[in-house]
Write a structure and sequence with these properties.
By secondary structure, this protein is of the alpha+beta class. It contains five helices and three strands, in the order αββααβαα.
Length: about 160
Amino acid sequence: MKYLSTIPLIVFLDLISKIIVNKNISLNEKKEIIKNKIYLYNLKNKGIAMGFMKNKKNLIIKINVLFLVVIILNFIKIFRNSSNLLKLAFSFIIGGAFGNIIDRIKNNSVTDFIYIKIKKLPVFNIADLFIFLSIMLFLVEYVKNIDIFNFFKIRV
């Protein structure tokens, strides 16, 4: 049950952080948090993943909802027999997806505001962070379950 309660917490953190940014930082304004490293940068993303499919709101919402339904159905299917790590990964991706979908429906775009000055790193938000973390957890779970001897055809 604790994994399910993670979902609304992520949605809340994401949406409240976007409200705070929108009230305190003008559109396209950048505020330095850590000198030459981390900024708050209020951007509106009308597309997905770094602006791809810009200005196709209805199609993006349909794709996002379909993706979310597939993830939720898989989560329900595997919930009882899955590891805690996998449950956490599913909770993170569902919470992040809900946060961004709500923002897109409500505002016709997604507010991105965290900018870490590293080569080619996009501006992102709390929902994106949890989606990224979920992918990392899925990878850890996958690697954890690899039979390394069989994978490399090692005979012991």
